[in-house]
Fold each of these.
Amino acid sequence: MKRFLKKTILLVVTFITILVLFECVSAVLSAPKESQNKFYVKYQELIPLVNSKSVVLLGDSRMEWGVNASQIKNALNFGMPGSNGLDVLKYLRDNSIFPKAILINYTPFIHEYSNYNVDKTQYNLSTYIKTWIDYKLMDNSFLYNKKNMDILIHQNQPFMLEHYYNEYGDAEILLNENYPGPVQFQIDQYSSRASRFDSVKHKELLAEFEELSTVFKEHNTLFTGIYLPVCDTINQIEKPLPHYDYLNKVFVSGFYNFHELYDSLGQDVFMDCAHLEESYNVRFTDYLIEYCSFLEAR
């Protein structure tokens, strides 16, 4: 009888332990993870595709989310969060790659942005494989990616549940509806940037753009600046800051200011063309192709 009880108790304990482990593993696997990790894979895939027929889109997340390269003939979208695109320009210059056109999304906070060392990276099969493995670990592991562990431990909500790129570099994004106050978060972020706007650093960075633009102009590349639309709140924050007279000098092939276009294309946007309204980037890209004579629909 004692033997039977021991076996029964052991069996019950084993079953409960397995059940608890199963529930724990299921909870961990189903927990939301930070999905914004495919940056370097994107560069590995796109950089080798740039040639003299390409239309290169550069800039921060406004370009990344707000313009669809898939709608523009020969376009590749290099837009990245917090990027000013200088590293891509330097790589193209250093490797004598002069595309048909370069469109750079401008914001007055561009001097605060950092980049992804595109000009200091190798683009070959071995680097691509290493980068792809690192991306998969960052995207799926709690131990490898500290952000995922923080989300799990503190039960935080990531801003995005999915953040991937198509073959043209366009962002394919699923926002997290449970993320608290995304609109106010962006307003606070941009208000903070406006309060510490540094006109000296701003002009220094634009001077670097001007120097690079001369190189591309000599090789018949259209070097163009665009100012993507934002909602009224962000517009009022940014409007006093840019120096439009100087921008026309920097972007030697023209500077297209769509800053206040939100009024005709919809009010449900903030920060950039697509953070709240998925269809906005499609509509704006159609408008961009129609407005810019050197762009063709794909």
Note: Strands lie at 55-58, 75-77, 101-105, 160-165, 171-175, 222-227, 255-257.
Amino acid sequence: MYYTKVIVQHSSGSKAEGVKVALSISGIMSGGVTQNVYTDRHGVAIIPHESRGSAKVMVKGTTRTTIQVPGETVVFI
């Protein structure tokens, strides 16, 4: 099992609590969309996943960026 950390912040810099985050991981056999995880009061979502590689970071149902997973990123909304 791998884990990716996504930090969600408002454009003002404040932490976004309770925001839905998921990863869409590329791959024919090992890809797929993770379960939704909601950010904590610090704006942090730790997303468990089975695969490594390129993944789209989806926040509130919208793709915000693409990263290599496992990893860590900050997304502004």
Note: Residues 2-76 form a domain with the Immunoglobulin-like fold (CATH 2.60.40.10).
Amino acid sequence: MGSFKLIRSSSMRNLRGGETAHVITLIVNLLAKIAEGELEEPVEEDRPQVQMVDFNDGVEVLHVSAELVGKLRAVYALLRSATLQSNASNLSPEMANIDSERCRAANFFVRKILDYKKNPFEEERKAALKMNAEIKPYKNFYRRPIDERTEVINGLLEDARKTEYSAYITTMGLESCLLEIEKWNNQYAKLEQQRNAFFTARQNAAKVADLQDEAQDLMDDLCDTVNAAAVLFPSEEATNFIKNAVFIFKKARSSRNKRGPRKKTDKTPSTDAGNTSKPSNPDDSQKPDDSGSETTQPDDRPVVQ
């Protein structure tokens, strides 16, 4: 019958939520390339902040269904959201970009008023000076906690649009600047409301660990499907996918091992006074390697050559 190279381990155990989401991203992107007829070699260098491509179809040559791809994408989205929820200081890339834009526009407006002496025309300097006391409290507003900025910027807009300042705003030509500030601030507030609503609805639902278990089950199904296709219907596409997938999983485990195990508070210091290195975890030496080596537990699947 011959022999085949297969994915022996699709383990994502002990990865963090964001790391698991990254692996799913790379696998889905690989499926998309295979579907488009693009074969690639494993990439050695790190590829930070890889974005998942818009791919929702199956891959016929690998016998991977669109339903399985859709489930992987769904658990990826939940993992990303749950990871953001577990660390409130993190923002989605879209929210971070919008926050940067609104702060840029609002800071331009504030500095235009406070640095009134730098205005090129006398009329603008006088107009800015008239508004100086009103706008001064907003100096360095961008240093406020991010969850307070929406309301702070709303306050800035309300004060700047007071009737007594309308002529000054016109003199300095800042009407479009206020509109831009309002646009970005409203967009951020809308995304923030959607995110908070989603988190509230799911606060007692699946935790990151549960989502990782689901992701592992789906990844096992995917790899078993591709392994079967490689044995029953050998193809260049199956061989390429397996080669790249093995590399992706190996790289993820390597990064996890370099990071080391999570610190435990009940570790007992070594009694060897001459040894300054950290004591190894005795349990680690007993754990089998999940990298797919033949030194692990017997595998009844076709032998890797």
Note: Confidence is low (pLDDT under 50) at residues 264-305.
Amino acid sequence: MSQTKTIEKKQTLIALAVFGVALLLAIVNLQSNDSKLVQQTPPSPLASIGATQIHELHIATPNEEKPIVIVKDMSNNHWNITSPIQALADSTLIDEVIKNLVSLRFDSKPAAEHSNSWETLGVLEEQTKAITLINTKKQSKTIHIGTRDYIRLDNSDNVYRVSNLDKESIIDNVHGWRNRQVLKIPADDIRVVALKEQTKHAELTHTKTKDDKPQWTLTQGAQFVGALDSSIGPSLVRVLSDLRATSIVDGITHRRAGMMPPKVVVTVTLADKSSEKLWIGNQTGNNTYIGHPDNKHIWTIPTATIQSISGGILAWRDKSIVPFSSTEINQIKVKRDKELLVFERQDSSWKINKPKGYVLNDKYDIERMTGVLGSIKINRFVATNKKNLRKRGLNPPKIHITAINSENKSVTLSLGNTTANEVYAISSNRPELFLIPSYITGMFDKPWSELAKKQ
């Protein structure tokens, strides 16, 4: 009896082992099939043409009568627009577009195999951009990019969904393909940046400290700049090493753009003693016209991004207002019309000294105030003196804010009229009229009921 049970047990174990092996083989086979399915995902139909050998790009869109034709000069790898206009093209943009097109990832099966589905998927002829790539052997491939994430193959009814197409980079308008690179300079090669503004001249020179750290020194124009903004050197390098315009402006003269003479002339001297010049012209909306002596084009660039040069010599001046940190502020006085509010720090908390009989609704309101006062910077200078204050709402000011530290040193910031996102201001420790971010007005002009309540 015992022997029978032993045999049965062995048979059970053998059966389980066989089942386990079969299951393992099934899993391995399933994984192998999955792997084959992944490998069968079709590559981009443009990949076979060879990205490095592509020398011509055609873009036909429903909105343009003629296709955009861009051709690569294989001798220098620069791209040129040859139709419908002739202009230097943005080589970096085109290389990125081609790289994206030849690496498109397709779904393994077509989303549609008949033209009846084209309208639904947004790939009708009038809905698509036809992109043709031609290589040096004159081999070409074309795909039709639809309004959604689908593309149609040329000479085929098949439509595929793609997952990594950068549609925004494929621009409809020919002018969007034009080269907008104004300056391209190795950042480490910049040695001197000079600004000439009417009769004023200032120079900033790049040197090294004893421990080999970069250092920017004002070598000319101290009488115009005053105290130097310590962040201006790195800011100039960022702007000038890779300066790209947002647009090229056709049909405007240098006189109309404010470049005869320029408002500001920027000269960049490099390590090899060569130099580049820029002309800064008028402001137009939120942009500024800029030009280059060796280029007929006039460009526009957002004024905010080039403030370190478009703002002229005053843009290099130190822009700090309160000379002590937020943690050193022990008292804040806010005068609004006939109302005087006084907040005082006591140990780690704040209390209201004036008016009496009130407590703060939220202690973090005052922490935010001190944080702003200790860090706020001037956006830009309007004038080097405090004249014409009435039309800027500063005679008298709408709000006075005084920050006082533990040594009883104080700075008063006075606020006037606001613009879209800035407010005119003056301070007791600076001679200029300037603009600062307008959010400070809302912070210090809150209704009293939002700041405090009766005890």
Note: Residues 229 and 316 are 6 Å apart (CA to CA).
